[in-house]
Automatic annotation (TrEMBL):
It comes from Streptomyces luomodiensis. This is Beta-eliminating lyase-related protein. SUPFAM superfamilies: PLP-dependent transferases (SSF53383). Keywords: Lyase, Pyridoxal phosphate. One of its GO terms (molecular function) is lyase activity. Its cofactor is pyridoxal 5'-phosphate.
């Protein structure tokens, strides 16, 4: 599943666009690099867009953002502080901040979420005495981490359900083999950023406890779940024994993640972090960007979620009014500020239509498309962030109409 930064998520082939200026650097005659450079240039020049992923920015812009963060009225950081060395200073401050936000005893900063998750599951396997993890087949652990839980940590997975939705309590109770850890991705990204209802989540956790299992939340995007659940971060995290969160997905950071939980678990995780090569000499840029994201983006996420529902409804109505043979906005009412769009055209056509729309109108509506199923049926992920708040439903409709007009032109050309 392509993400909103023009690539695939970490781990399963390919990377994400770094935002470097390949137009200036040249493409060396490589058509793939040329196409990527064209996309980046078109997106970057767009005056109207639903989101501006930091991975599509230029280096100078990111440096300016960090400098601005140092001069902001943030309570946790300032330019007069020293850089960190092996996790002290600003990194330790970030760990304290995350632990407090999630209501956990402690937290540890990790350079990647993949490392944080593998170590969390490894630690729980040692404590529960079983290497079996109950996890959804569409979860990040299964789809985007190259089987790290198996090949690196020696664990084994049992599927919670084969349905493209979060598991139910009954399914957890009925699993036909013991498991030590239940890993729940909130939201379940590759199923459409889906979340259970609050009572359903509580029941699933209780079912795992009945099976004598611990519960780990893959909360890379947990920050934006509060609106759907109607609960604060601390109350959500309290259901789990450990929680992983990301700093670069919803918070617009540079990189990095945190694992939060009991002090003893976090201490053990830090020891394994060193063994896994995650004891990085200096990480102050990533920590600074994460703290800035907690100050700037975290309070805004509920407004993004609310506006995502406006954008999703406008898109659904625009596709119907335009007479598209088949389309799907999934879920119809987004659970977070991200959702899927499905259209009955080749991904290459939709990619080209999106780039032409950006080049010709300086409006970016959709980014990359993929065909995970039958050829000619493509999907993309839509992220609604701060720039989207300026869009009315009519603006979305107009952009969708302009996009579809270019799709039809391309289909005639291919004709």
């Amino acid at each position: 599943m392509a993400d909103d930064t023009d690539g695939t998520d970490s781990g399963k082939g390919g990377g994400t666009d770094s935002g470097t200026d390949e137009v200036a650097d040249g493409t060396g005659g490589d058509p793939e690099r040329a196409a990527r450079a064209r996309r980046l240039a078109a997106w970057h020049a767009s005056e109207r867009t639903l989101a501006r992923p930091s991975a599509n920015g230029r280096i100078a812009e990111r440096l300016a953002d960090l400098t601005a963060a140092l001069t902001a009225d943030g309570p946790s950081y300032g330019g007069d502080g020293y850089v960190d060395v092996y996790g002290d200073g600003i990194v330790a401050e970030l760990e304290r901040r995350v632990a407090a936000l999630l209501g956990m005893e402690a937290a540890a900063f990790f350079p990647t979420g993949t490392m944080a998750q593998q170590i969390a599951l490894r630690c729980w396997a040692g404590r529960t005495g079983t290497p079996v993890v109950a996890v959804h087949p569409l979860a990040h652990l299964e789809v985007h981490e190259r089987d790290a839980y198996l090949t690196v940590s020696g664990l084994r997975a049992v599927a919670t359900t084969r349905e493209p939705r979060p598991p139910t309590a009954e399914e957890i109770r009925d699993l036909d083999e013991p498991f030590g850890t239940l890993a729940l991705e909130l939201p379940l990204r590759d199923a459409g950023f889906l979340l259970p209802e609050w009572d359903e989540l509580v029941a699933v956790v209780e079912a795992a406890r009945e099976r004598d299992a611990v519960v780990h939340f893959d909360g890379a995007r947990l920050w934006e779940c509060t609106a759907h659940f109607g609960r604060g971060l601390e109350e959500i995290a309290a259901l789990a024994d450990s929680v992983y969160v990301s700093f670069y997905k919803s918070l617009d950071g540079i990189s990095g993640a945190a694992l939060a939980g009991p002090e003893t678990l976090v201490a053990e995780a830090k020891a394994w972090r060193h063994r896994y090569g995650g004891q990085v000499f200096q990480q102050w840029p990533a920590a600074l960007a994460a703290l800035a994201g907690l100050d700037r983006e975290l309070p805004r996420l509920p407004s993004y979620v609310a506006h995502a529902r406006v954008v999703a409804e406008a898109l659904r109505k625009a596709f119907t009014a335009a007479g598209v043979a088949w389309s799907r906005v999934h879920p119809e009412v987004p659970h977070t500020h991200q959702f899927q769009v499905w259209l009955p055209y080749p991904a290459a056509v939709l990619d080209e239509a999106g780039v032409r729309l950006a080049e010709e109108t300086r409006t970016t509506l959709f980014r990359r498309w993929t065909e995970p199923g039958p050829p000619g049926l493509a999907t993309t992920e839509v992220t609604v962030a701060s720039p989207a708040l300026e869009w009315t439903a009519d603006d979305v409709t107009a952009a969708a109409d302009a996009f579809l007009a270019r799709v039809r032109e391309l289909m005639k050309e291919d004709g």
